[in-house]
Structure formats: structure tokens, C-alpha cells
Automatic annotation (TrEMBL):
Residues 11-226 are annotated as: Phosphopantothenate--cysteine ligase. Its cofactor is FMN; Mg(2+). Residues 6-217 form the DNA/pantothenate metabolism flavoprotein C-terminal domain. Pathway: Cofactor biosynthesis; coenzyme A biosynthesis; CoA from (R)-pantothenate: step 3/5; Cofactor biosynthesis; coenzyme A biosynthesis; CoA from (R)-pantothenate: step 2/5. One of its GO terms (cellular component) is phosphopantothenoylcysteine decarboxylase complex. It comes from Streptomyces aidingensis. The chain holds residues 184 to 409 of 409 of the full protein. This is Coenzyme A biosynthesis bifunctional protein CoaBC. The lineage of its organism: Bacteria, Bacillati, Actinomycetota, Actinomycetes, Kitasatosporales.
Length: 226
């Protein structure tokens, strides 16, 4: 049996992928299934944590015992995470957040017209929620964890991203070759801004989730991560 080493802790987890509407029926989205974020929620609950799960368009059953807050867009996710993060011990941003959204959202369905070229879609940047949470912590000593999907130079890109975002831990996923998005397995390196990196070999998403909580617990106990 697992030790309840997260007992008394409140953790906030974002999961899934945001959708940015173009009109009432269409959106710009991504292929994130939410499985890794839900695995983080389940394992945290099993280890005794109180869990708030900010779920962006994930078609998955609610983990028993979690407070689930459904969201659609990056802006909704930003508001929900920021609110939940107030007073939380840790925030884990596992959601795939759209970097851009359409500058305008049409109130009615965009129509194709005979003999007319479609209108170009102008995009504007979404705020970087992880960077903002890292810069303004929701509680003293709050731990902020990010995720990053990389295909090449995983470690170098991951280290640079960890520094740029200002979070404490960054879980760098290897994507491609049947890994990560929508699959049951993951392979990652957990980077610690103050410590060594932990290589997590290809395996179930619950396994990676438990290694992430190990790294979080190691930070809280002041010990170097395994
Ligand atoms: O920069 P990149 O998208 O690779 O960073 C991924 C990490 O940043 C994830 O933890 C994701 O949840 C977070 N993110 C965010 N806000 C954005 C884009 C990404 O919080 N606008």
C-alpha cells in the first residue's frame, strides 16, 4: 500500500486541452486527451491529497473524491486555475493550453460563399498561465509544476523552458512514435530547477504521475529528488 504522503496537502491539476472558438460550432483545439492529468489526480487522491482538477474538454470519468471544474477556453482555464491555486500547496499544469486564439469570435456560423475565398483567421496570443503562476505564487512556498512536449533535444529544450517559465519542476515528455497524446503510455524526464533530472522510462501514465508526486514530496522534505 502507498503511504499517504500527500495527506493534508491541497493540489491543483489542470488536464486536457483548451478549445478556442471561431464561431458557435467550430474551434481551434489540440489532441490532448487529459489522461496524464487525470492520472495525476487519481494518484494524488490515492496518496491522501485534496485534489482540484481543472478539466479542459476531457471526455473522462471524474476521479472519485476530486473537485472537478470543467473549462473550455484558455481564458476560462486561467481563471479557474488562478482561483483554485490560491492557498494550494502545489499546482501542476498538465493541460495543453492553446498558445493562440482567434482574434474574433463570430456570433453566427461562418458560411462558405460561392466564388468567394474564405476570410483569413487572425490569431492573438494567449497569456502563459504557467509563467504567470510561477511569477505570482498562490501561497508562500507553493510548488509549481509544468509539462512540456518535445520531439528533439529534449533535455536542452526542457532546461531552457524550465528557466523561461520560472516553475520548480518541468516534466518533459518525449512525443512521437506512439507516445503521449491520446495513448496509455508516456516517457519523460522530470527536471528540477534546483536538483538533478529523473528519467522515467516508458510506462503507464499513472507510473509517471507517481514519479511526479515523488519529486514534489522530495522538494517539500528538502531532500534531493530520487
Ligand atoms: O510553452 P509550452 O506550451 O511548451 O509549455 C507547456 C507548459 O506551459 C504546460 O505546462 C502548459 O500547461 C503551460 N502553458 C500555459 N499557458 C499557455 C501555454 C502553455 O500555462 N498559454
Amino acid at each position: 500500500a502507498l503511504e499517504p504522503d500527500l495527506a493534508g496537502r491541497h493540489v491543483v491539476i489542470s488536464a486536457g486541452g483548451t478549445r478556442e472558438p471561431l464561431d458557435p460550432v467550430r474551434y481551434l483545439g489540440n489532441r490532448s486527451s487529459g489522461k496524464q492529468g487525470y492520472a495525476l489526480a487519481r494518484t494524488a487522491l490515492a496518496r491522501g491529497a485534496r485534489v482540484t482538477l481543472i478539466a479542459a474538454n476531457a471526455a473522462l470519468p471524474d476521479p472519485a473524491g476530486a473537485e472537478v471544474v470543467p473549462v473550455g477556453t484558455a481564458e476560462e482555464l486561467r481563471q479557474a486555475v488562478t482561483k483554485a491555486a490560491s492557498g494550494a500547496d502545489a499546482v501542476v499544469m498538465a493541460a495543453a493550453v492553446a498558445d493562440f486564439r482567434p482574434a474574433a469570435r463570430s456570433g453566427s456560423k461562418i458560411k462558405k460563399r460561392e466564388g468567394q475565398e474564405p476570410e483569413p483567421v487572425r490569431l492573438v496570443r494567449n497569456p502563459d498561465i504557467l509563467a504567470a503562476l510561477s511569477a505570482a505564487r498562490g501561497a508562500p512556498g507553493q510548488l509549481v509544476v509544468g509539462f512540456a512536449a518535445e520531439t528533439d533535444d529534449v533535455l536542452a529544450n526542457g532546461r531552457a523552458k524550465l528557466a523561461r517559465k520560472g516553475c520548480d519542476l518541468l516534466v518533459v515528455n518525449r512525443v512521437g512514435e506512439g507516445l503521449a497524446f491520446g495513448t496509455e503510455e508516456n516517457e519523460a524526464v522530470i527536471l528540477d530547477a534546483r536538483g538533478p533530472e529523473t528519467v522515467v522510462p516508458r510506462g503507464p501514465k499513472d507510473e509517471l504521475a507517481d514519479r511526479v508526486w515523488d519529486a514534489v514530496v522530495a522538494r517539500w522534505s528538502g531532500a534531493p529528488p530520487r
